[in-house]
Amino acid sequence: MSIEVRNITKKYGSFTVIQNLNLEIPTGELVVLLGPSGSGKTTLLRAIAGLERTDIGQILLNGEDATHLGPRDRGIGFVFQNYALFRHMNVFENVAFGLRVRPRKLRPSEKEIRDRVHELLKLVQLEEFAKRFPSQLSGGQCQRVALARALAVEPKVLLLDEPFGALDAKVRQELRSWLRNIHDELHITSVFVTHDQEEALEVADRIVVINEGQIEQVGTPEEVYTHPATPFVYNFIGRVNVISGQVQEGRIRIGNLEAEVPEGFGTSAICYVRPHDIEIETQRENQSENQSTNAIEATIRHINIIGPVARLDLKRSDTGEFIQAEISNDMYQRLGLKVNQPVYVKFRNLKVFAQEKSLGKGPQDDSEALPVGSVSLNANLHVS
Ligand SMILES: Nc1ncnc2c1ncn2[C@@H]1O[C@H](COP(=O)(O)OP(=O)(O)OP(=O)(O)O)[C@@H](O)[C@H]1O
């Protein structure tokens, strides 16, 4: 079943939690709502479920207006963070519950219920736990029961609100790939809420990045990671260096690097570069004295080797700003890098946002960065 959220707004008193939000989720997709705490993810999920009334806007399910349907009439299964299993029922009865409480006419026979529950317990790999009570299960097992219970009533949409939030890192990791496999098998349209970017990148077909009740970007994990649309997405997903730049006479300057910027860019810019998009050289490129180089000078202040990756903390010689770079351990060995060594830093992929003051929100202070241009620095700077 497809989901369409059309122009919804939700306020609590004078506080706007969601503003003019539009989102389309095609049938069979696993979409992750990703955003910081308080950004409105749960409110949006509850609006889709019919558990929350919105002030303005519509929710369409399979193209039909479901705005005024109650949760029971939407064909939706829900999995919450806190398991919400019935403590006095064993695993089998928990999963069977939704089928048993159906009106008599719609209720399956006892044999059908038994077959369905066993099928689901097999799917979530808990067949041998059917007789156990929730208190005799681990947190991860409880969540698998909760998922089986949600699936028992054959929902057309599955909504998961931080389902692995209460579990430790290793169990979370296992359950993510397990959930992904189950989704690939069943293809139920699913909306998964998390504030954990790693979880989102691993599980989602598409990620919806939400900030302050508005969508910042919708894209595949690869798109949002590699081509963040806004400074917020850059900061929120993955590691990033934030580098300030000056704009004068239509050109941006970062140390001795320069590039043209589009007209109307303003006078200051913030630049974002991922640590793995930084190249390190130990010698200045072969250029004549009065030509500016295409690298900036820095000193290595700290080296951290994490398996195949070398993480370097670099201090810019011109501004004293710190930059973090990630290179392969092989490259690190080849270059023979040492702490306090002067090096030359090149940016492979640097995104530049114009910064305008006093617009009330943004990644830093009271400023808002506007995505006006993107600059890549390789051999030379150029605006793309
Ligand atoms: N019933 C309510 N009354 C007033 N404010 C509310 C209510 N429910 C939520 N809020 C506020 O709305 C905002 C969004 O809440 P919501 O639970 O949707 O955020 P979230 O992104 O899911 O956060 P988290 O990741 O912490 O669960 C928060 O600032 C929250 O305090």
Note the main attributes of this structure.
binds adenosine-5'-triphosphate; OB fold (Dihydrolipoamide Acetyltransferase, E2P); alpha+beta; 384 residues; 6-stranded mixed sheet; nucleotide-binding; Rossmann fold; translocase; disordered C terminus; ATP hydrolysis activity
Helix content: 10-25%
Beta fraction: 35-45%
The CATH architecture category of the largest domain equals 3-Layer(aba) Sandwich
Radius of gyration: 26 Å
GO molecular function: ABC-type sulfate transporter activity; ATP binding; ATP hydrolysis activity
Organism: Effusibacillus lacus
Protein name: Sulfate ABC transporter ATP-binding protein
GO cellular component, one term: ATP-binding cassette (ABC) transporter complex
How is the topology of this model organized?
Elements: E1 3-12, E2 15-25, E3 30-34, H1 41-49, E4 56-61, E5 64-65, E6 76-79, H2 91-100, H3 110-123, H4 139-152, E7 157-161, H5 169-186, E8 189-194, H6 197-203, E9 206-211, E10 214-219, H7 221-226, H8 231-236, E11 241-248, E12 251-254, E13 257-260, E14 268-273, E15 278-281, E16 296-306, E17 309-316, E18 322-328, H9 329-335, E19 342-347, E20 350-356, E21 368-377, E22 381-383
Parallel strand pairs: 3-8, 3-9, 6-7, 7-8
Antiparallel strand pairs: 1-2, 1-4, 4-5, 9-10, 11-12, 11-14, 12-13, 14-20, 15-19, 16-17, 16-19, 17-18, 20-21, 21-22
